Structure formats: structure tokens, C-alpha cells
Amino acid sequence: MNTVRVRFAPSPTGHLHIGGLRTALFNVLFAKHMGGTFLLRVEDTDIERSKPEYVASQLASLEWANIVPDEPLVYQLSRINEHKQIINRLLAEGKVYKCYCTENIEYNTHIDNELNDQTFLKYNRTCRSLPIDHISEKPYVIRFALPDQGIIEFNDLIRGPIAFNTHEFDDFIIARSDGTPMYNFVVVADDAFMKITHVIRGEDHISNTPKQILLYQACGYNIPHFAHLPLILGPSGQRLSKRDAATSVTEYKDAGFLPAALINYLVRLGWSHGDQEVFTFQELVNYFSLEQVGKKSGIFDIKKLEWLNGLYMRQSSAHELYNYIRQYIDHLFEERLSTWSTRQIIELIELYKSRTHTLKELINELIAVHDKITQISDDDARSWINENTKEHLKTVQKSFELLETFTQENITAAVKQIALNLSIKLITIAQPIRLALIGKSSGPGVFELCTILGKTKTVERIQELINSL
């Protein structure tokens, strides 16, 4: 059996779509599960739409998701001379032909009785009968001389047998008038060059497959296996758009989603292994098979992704999350968090990671604690501030100033003693302290916050609230 070789081949006409990332993941998992090879090809022959910045963006997104090819990256445009050589060979063999009908193309209407009397508008093949050595000054395209083959059938590894009638197709163009080859041709030429054994891609490519099979046959290449993945749809059941959610990988990276969480979510959006929801990457490799990929399109659910990302954040160490955050908001560390030590930030991450769903939410909490919300909400004020609060806070402030070691244990003991001396519930004094520290009554443990902020900052913030009462 030949070694499995698969590829992911994005076109650099925009940022990497999350559907593209899922396709890349399915290729990687299949290759690793089968002990095969994963390759990456940049399909940059559309010179007008392909941009270097999109190449860089797509490669960065793949690297962020830890998707790295097993062999050097292939740029399709770098093989343009090889493509032209193959076309010249096909011209010499009479399998393709020059078509000078670039303007005022005439079409024939074809009615196919085998296809329930469906009507197709087809090029009338005016130039197909021209001799190979015909010379003209007019510009021309290269058309494929479609054989009267009848039915083209292939066994899709996800969908089963799929058949097309060649009567549905035109003598399709494989090279433009400027000599640049068209998509279906270069895909076949490059997949053959890269010795691809399995083509795993989105179902929107199903209609390209019969044309590509004909080209494989014409060129004398081995035909790979095909597997067409279901699409990702928005909640409305239409193709996922920006109205439903972010669509590019960069947007999810910038929003603070962890790569492992996004990978887990996207793979599960179309593939399943029993009822298991959460997988390590190695588990995905071990369990993955194309037989478990569904035919039905997956519905993208941002809330489920946020839940899953929150789970991954809780399972990550504070040090890991700190390193991720430094990648995204280094400028904020310099501008807003420079007065804090790494230890303080990591300890705050440990406090807040179970209360947030994305790194962006976590960052916002860190900044909120650092800057402190000075305007306490009316609800919090009504609930926790009364005529005695000012004196209670003064007592706490004096007690804190007397503590030689500002540890959580000593802070807790001091506040409990104050509550006991004043004959009040602990929460009656603890909540105003929290309001002084972070400006709101909800949040992590108040004594932990005091410890992390340190004695000087804690006393200063209590004084600020006292001054405002």
C-alpha cells in the first residue's frame, strides 16, 4: 500500500477562514493517524487576487494552530513553467485545443434525455476541429477536449458513490489567454507532482472532481481518493458569515481563544467519537477516521466554543496563560501593567481564569483590577455601603498598617477579628473592602486580592473609598 500523502492548499486571497483551518486539521489528523505525510501548497496563480500579506497571514494562522507541513512548502506559481510544458504535451496529443472564440462565443443548446430532459448551454466547439498546427494572430484560450465518456463515477470516502454525466460539462478552459493555467488543471498537475494519494477538501469542490478526474486520465496520472467535508453553517442554516460570527482564524486568535480549544471545537464540528466532547490532540490523532465524518453540515455555535475555551483555560496553568497573553497584549503590559510584577500578574490570572471564557475577557479583568473602577454602581452602594462603612474601613486600614507580614492568613485573621469586635457579619466588612480594591462586589476572594495587590496598594485603595464616602 502506498504511503498516505495529503495536502492543504489555500488560496492567498484573504485571511484563513475557520472552515479552511478545519480542512487543514482533518488532513493533518488523517495523515498522522495513517502514518502518512501532510503537505502544504499555496495556490497563488491568481496573480490579481493573491497578496503576499495574505500568504503571511495564512501561514501565521496555521503555525498558531501548530499545523506544520512535513515537507517544504510548495508555491503553485513557482511551477508555472512545468504547467505550461504539460499543456504543450496535451496540445500535441490532441487532448486539449486552442480556442480563438474569446469574443462572441456561440453556444449550442443541448437537451439530455438521460438527465430528465435537462437543458445545458454548451460551447459549440467551433475551434475543436482546427488542425493542431493552425496559426492565428488572435488571442486564444486552451480548452479541454471533453471525451464522450458518459458517466464519471468516483467513490467519495465520506459520501459514497457520486456520479456525473459528461453531457453536463462544456469543453472547459484550462489556460487563460495570457497563458496562465486555470484552477482545475493546476490542481491536478500539482497533486500529481506532490504524489498526493488522498484529496480531503470541502464539499463545495465536489463539482470540480469529475473535471479533475478527466484531467488525471488525460495526463496519465494516478487518480487520488477523494473525501469531501461538510460545510460550516451559521445559526440561520446559511453559510457562515460575519453576521453570524467571526470567520477568520486571526479574529479568533485576537479575541483570545486558545488554539487547542478552537482545534477541538472545529474537529468536533463534523466528526465524532462516541459522546466524547473534549480531546487532547493525540487523542484526535488516535481516534480520527474519515468514516466518522458526517455528511451533514455543522452549525457554528459561538457559545459552545466559548464554553469549551473556558474549560481549556481552567485546565491551563497560570504560567501558560500568562505566556499566551504576553503574545497578544505586550503593549498593554508596557502601558497599563508595567507597575506590576510578573508574580502579581500570574497570581491574578490564577484567581480570574475560572471566571472568564477567553483571554480577552481575562485581560479586561486584569486591567480592571489594575486601574480600579472608581465609580461604584448604585446597586453595590445600596447593598454594601451604609452610615457605618466609613468607620469600619478606617478600622481595617489601621489594622492592615500594623501587620508586619501582609499574608493572606494574617489579613483573614485581622478582618475576622474586626468583625468579631464590631459584632457584625464578616461579609459586612469584606464586601466594602472588595469595592475599595476592584470597584465591584463580585469577584475572587477578597483576602487573596489583598495579598496579591500588596499592603501599600490595598491601604491606598481603602483610603480612596474612605475619602469618597
How would you sum up this structure in a few lines?
By secondary structure, the chain is an alpha/beta fold.
Structure description:
The protein is an alpha/beta fold. It folds into four domains: about 1-70 and about 230-315, HUPs (Rossmann fold), CATH 3.40.50.620; about 80-185, Glutamyl-tRNA Synthetase, domain 3 (Alpha-Beta Complex), CATH 3.90.800; about 315-370; about 380-469, Orthogonal Bundle (Arc Repressor Mutant, subunit A), CATH 1.10.10.350. Helix content is about 45%, strand content about 15%. It has helices at about 20-35, 50-65, 80-90, 185-195, 210-220, 250-255, 260-270, 280-285, 300-315, 320-330, 330-335, 340-350, 360-370, 380-385, 390-400, 410-420, 425-440, 445-455, 455-469, and strands at about 5-10, 35-40, 75, 95-100, 105-110, 120-125, 140-145, 150-155, 160-165, 175, 200, 225-230, 230-235, 300. The strands form six sheets. It has a three-stranded parallel β-sheet with strand order 1-2-3. Strands 4-7-10 form a three-stranded antiparallel β-sheet. It has a two-stranded antiparallel sheet with strand order 5-6. Helix 10 crosses helix 12, helix 15 (about 390-400) packs across helix 16 (about 410-420) and helix 15 runs antiparallel to helix 19 (about 455-469). The longest helix is centred in the first third of the chain and has 16 residues, at about 20-35. Residues about 110-115 have low confidence and may be disordered.
